[in-house]
Amino acid sequence: MSPLRSGANSHYRIGSRALHRGETETAESLFHCALSDAGHPGAAFRVLAAAARRSTAAHQQGRGHLLGMRAAARYLQRAAAWGHGDARQLLDWISSSPAGPARPEDGEAQDAATGYTPQDPDFYPEIRLFLYCLMGARPAAPARCTTNSAPSSS
After folding, report:
1. Of 15, 2, 82, 80, which Cα lies nearest the Cα of 49?
2. What's the rounded Cα separation, in Å, for the pair 57 and 117?
3. How far apart are CA 9 and CA 42, in angstroms?
4. Phi and psi torsions of 125, nearest 5°
5. Do residues 48 and 127 make contact, with C-beta atoms less than 8 angstroms apart?
6. How do residues 42-101 score in pLDDT, each as one tens digit?
């Protein structure tokens, strides 16, 4: 393994631990290091989770969303281009309907029906929910659109 790839893997692992602990800014910085070191596909996906949490926190403080749908799609496109299956799945989910993606629960049912198993089960549901909320498909349910809590690591 090249030194760049090894460094990217280290940044990814440390960033992932930070993200699990809720240290969003630290995680985001480490994921960006993994991206610039070696184009790490997992870091490209998880940096969206960190950015989504930061954006959600800003929205809850009345500062609007810092991250829009186009920016979120760019994160997904980069991760998909580098081989991340969840990013490809979410891009397909977003584009599956002209009115926007189906409810997250419907997407989970679709994944189950097609046999899709998320590559990143810790953050895939969180990112899917964030994208759904960004689309504004369900503004009457703000509690469901909170993505800033750390998922359990079990």
Report:
1. 15
2. 29
3. 9
4. -65, -40
5. yes
6. 999 999 999 999 988 888 888 776 788 889 999 999 999 999 999 999 998 888 766 666
User: What number of other Cβ atoms are within 10 A of residue 15's Cβ?
Assistant: 26
* Residue type, position 47, single letter: V
Q: State both tokens at 111.
A: 């994944």
Tokens matching residue 5: 């790839």
Q: What tokens were used for 110?
A: 């679709």
Kindly compute the dihedral angle of the four CA atoms of residues 94, 99, 104, 109, in this order, to the nearest 10 degrees. -90
Nearest CA to 121 among 76, 153, 74, 96? 153
The one-character DSSP state at 149 is S
Burial of 134 (0-12, 13-18, 19+ CB in 10 A): buried
